[in-house]
Amino acid sequence: MSSPSSATASSTSGGVRSPIIEFRxxxxxxxxxxxxxxAVDHVDxxxxxxxIFAVIGYSGAGKSTLVRLINGLERVTSGELIVDxxxxxxxxxxxxxxxxxxxxxIFQQFNxxxxxxxxxxxAFPLKVAGWPKERRxxxxxxxxxxxxxxxxxxxxxxxxxxxxxxRVGIARALAAGPKVLLADESTSALDPETTQDVLRLLKKVNxxxxxxxxxxxxxxxIVRAIADRVAILENGRVAECGTVFETFTNPRSEVGxxxxxxxxxxxxxxxxxxxxxxxxxxxxxxxxxxxxSRLGAVLAGAGAAGVSFEIVYGGIGTLQARSFGSLxxxxxxxxxxxDEVVRRLRDVTEVEEVA
Length: 355
Prior knowledge:
By secondary structure, the chain is α/β, with parallel strands linked by helices. It has two domains: 19-262, P-loop containing nucleotide triphosphate hydrolases (Rossmann fold, 3-Layer(aba) Sandwich), CATH 3.40.50; 270-353, ACT domain (Alpha-Beta Plaits, 2-Layer Sandwich), CATH 3.30.70.260. The protein has twelve helices and 14 strands. A hairpin with a 2-residue loop joins strand 4 (78-83) and strand 5.
């Protein structure tokens, strides 16, 4: 069976995407007897149609509130929030209810009806929307085939694994053909292998249906696996935003550097750094690796200058079809010759001296 149809109509031209979600100086303030809490603080953010956009932050950063503003589960306190051409901050509740039909959402704890079958769960939003039974049944079969659960149509949620429950959740979120799919910590209740299966399905939703996917997570590995771009939140503000490659290879904020250090172990720190200093008396430098760097050519010529080198730490990986990483080197030889090799390395890449 072919992929289920989507309501998404591309507004791209010549490979240029246009925003489908725009936060314009958006704030969300919660007020209680104990005072006020600013959950989202003057956020400016643009999410392009057809991309997978990740929002990451530690607990309390405001990321879940941010995503709930998009579908109106929380209402904006100030600013403009444009979703597919409409400012949702200005919509009435009845208008917002209609708007939500174009915004699917999947949850950490699945939120399935235990008393309904798999097919019944997927059909529920279509029944509420008034779809006739014949058309509803055809759509449910189409979606269950798409997520690989057509043979479990008559099972109940308690008979499913966690990964299967989330697949039902995705099918239900896609039922009305949304342009946007919101995934709020949608894999945090799953084991690593099942997580990868769900991430592949989200990627399939994006590539085959053209649905814009917004992923909320506290795990940078999730971002690395499927996202095109990422925004890092801290205390309700956007600390930085850019492509996933940019964020991994050159994080600009302190919170960004903390996140990246948890998954990229290509530079020596702590005990590793102490060990290297004790075992290698030469000059220690760390050189960044990226596509197009000519590190090898410089090192190949080091011997002629009387300098020997040894790789003492590092790693190289790929992300979005590009190489990245770093190598920590011990350079041994006359001081002037080592200085010259370091200078040549700096000509082709970023080099950091290890004190």
